[in-house]
From TrEMBL:
Pfam family, one: Amidohydro_1
Keyword Transport recorded: no
Protein's recorded name: 5-methylthioadenosine/S-adenosylhomocysteine deaminase
Keywords: Hydrolase, Metal-binding, Zinc
Family: Belongs to the metallo-dependent hydrolases superfamily. MTA/SAH deaminase family.
Reaction equation(s) it catalyzes: S-adenosyl-L-homocysteine + H2O + H(+) = S-inosyl-L-homocysteine + NH4(+); S-methyl-5'-thioadenosine + H2O + H(+) = S-methyl-5'-thioinosine + NH4(+)
GO MF, one annotated term: metal ion binding
Cofactor: Zn(2+)
Annotated Gene3D superfamilies: Metal-dependent hydrolases, Urease, subunit C, domain 1
Species, as recorded: Aminobacterium colombiense (strain DSM 12261 / ALA-1)
Transmembrane segments annotated in the record for this chain: none
Length: 427
């Protein structure tokens, strides 16, 4: 494994007061030294001369996606969630094969890695394929087999994923993936929570994405949202990820204080599907952990976490008429540390000695960064930056993206195979 020295770079993570100019040494997949600029010996290392014009951020975490849906981009556009799923998406997903899922996920990984994503939480089908392609590329992935209905065979598949992949190469983790309260009967959800506790793994589910779902909980399941989480045991698992959480009421949030919950904010998917805007400021006020996600490429339609950072800040400032309501620093924590913690990855999401070398290298020598300083770096990143500033992406000390290339995989082959899969699926 190579040793890398980022010489004379800026670094920033969401827990730092301000940016810092320094040298960063990466050895054996971890950040081994952070010292004053131009002080670490540059012999016997691969040198990345940053010349005070680059920034290292912790790798971004896409907290909620369905990666292989990159094959379904553009399908059933501009339709509300339930008819989009039932009439457009699910009939096509019924024709997915393991091979299509492999290439669709690979396609998504090209896009995510080039945007600086190092880790993603994926809920889908044929998750062995997702595990294999993540390992081939060298990306961190939290796998959950999407569970719809009450089907022991599918639950067993999800449990087998734990035996086969959980912890593999420090890149993979596994969660149980009940799709949503409206597709999984309540008693089945309860059993899944019990299994998560027994197997010491997390849960990844959709929750309160639309107003319709809130009414469904009330009218069909006779539960208020937090009551549902309590009754089904979702508040007792080692970790529970709730994708969306748009329709929580502010007064319900204190009940989730100090809980095992991470809510994944997917602002662009929620805007595009017309689902609504989550009460993010109140969630943060209550100390609830919130991360960021793109959801699938068929509802977003990008897998670009920079877009989620920018819109995740701007929409709340806009609807509350208050520019102070959310800070760039908080957004960066959501896009890194909170995402990693929610998915169960340790020592991931900060730039600290002994932490995993999951890093994004950003070129600051661009017109829109003119005038930045260590104090303003976070706001430049969130409001002025974009994914085109990403020069390279590293996971556990290995490049997954470097200057437009993907060292671990064959980009052309992925594009060719994904195009064939798409054609076979949608013709
Ligand atoms: C059972 S695997 C995951 C399942 O989720 C579907 N899906 C994609 N986007 C959304 C969304 O925004 N809300 C709910 N479900 C969604 C996907 O198509 C798979 O069937
Ligand atoms: Zn989703």
């Amino acid at each position: 494994m190579s040793t890398y020295l980022f010489q004379n770079t800026y670094i920033y993570d969401g827990q730092m007061e301000r940016g810092l100019r320094c040298d960063v040494l990466v050895e054996n997949g971890v950040i081994s030294k952070i010292e004053a600029p131009n002080t670490i010996d540059d012999g016997h290392v691969s040198l990345i001369d940053c010349n005070g014009e680059k920034l290292l951020l912790p790798g971004f975490v896409n907290g909620h996606t369905h990666a292989a849906m990159s094959l379904l981009r553009g399908l059933g556009e501009e339709t509300p969630l339930m008819s989009w799923l039932k009439e457009q998406i699910w009939p096509v997903e019924a024709r997915l094969t393991p091979e299509y899922i492999y290439w669709g996920t690979a396609l998504a990984l090209l896009e995510m890695a080039s945007c600086g994503v190092t880790c993603f939480g994926d809920m889908y089908f044929e998750m062995d394929q997702v595990a294999q392609v993540s390992l081939a590329m060298g990306m961190k992935c939290a796998l959950s087999r999407g569970l719809i209905g009450e089907d022991q065979k599918r639950v067993d598949e999800n449990l087998k994923l734990i035996d086969d992949w959980h912890g593999k190469k420090g890149l993979l983790s596994v969660q149980l993936g009940p799709h949503a309260p409206y597709t999984v009967p309540m008693n089945a959800m309860k059993k899944i929570s019990e299994l998560a506790l027994e197997r010491n793994v997390g849960i990844h589910t959709h929750f309160l994405e639309t107003e319709w779902e809130r009414q469904y909980l009330r009218d069909e399941l006779h539960c208020q949202p937090v009551e549902y989480l309590e009754k089904t045991g979702l508040l007792n698992t080692p970790r529970t990820i709730l994708a969306h959480g748009v329709w929580f009421l502010p007064e319900e949030l204190p009940l989730l204080k100090d809980s095992n919950i991470t809510i994944v904010h997917n602002p662009n998917s929620n805007l595009k599907l017309g689902s609504g805007i989550m009460p993010l400021p109140e969630m943060i006020d209550q100390g609830i952990s919130v991360s960021l996600g793109t959801d699938g490429a068929a509802s977003n339609n990008r897998l670009d976490i920079w877009e989620e950072m920018r819109h995740g800040a701007l929409i709340h400032k806009g609807v509350r008429h208050d520019p102070t309501i959310i800070k760039a620093k908080q957004i960066l924590t959501m896009a890194t540390l909170n995402g990693a913690r929610g998915l169960g990855f340790e020592k991931t999401g900060l730039i600290r000695e002994t932490w995993d070398a999951d890093l994004v290298l950003i070129d600051l020598d661009r017109p829109h960064y003119l005038g930045f300083d260590v104090e303003t770096l976070p706001v430049y990143i969130v409001y002025a930056g974009s994914s085109t500033d990403v020069e390279a992406t590293m996971v556990k000390g290995q490049w997954v993206y470097f200057n437009g290339e993907f060292p671990s995989v064959d980009r052309e082959e992925i594009l060719k195979q994904a195009a064939q899969a798409r054609k076979a699926l949608i013709s």
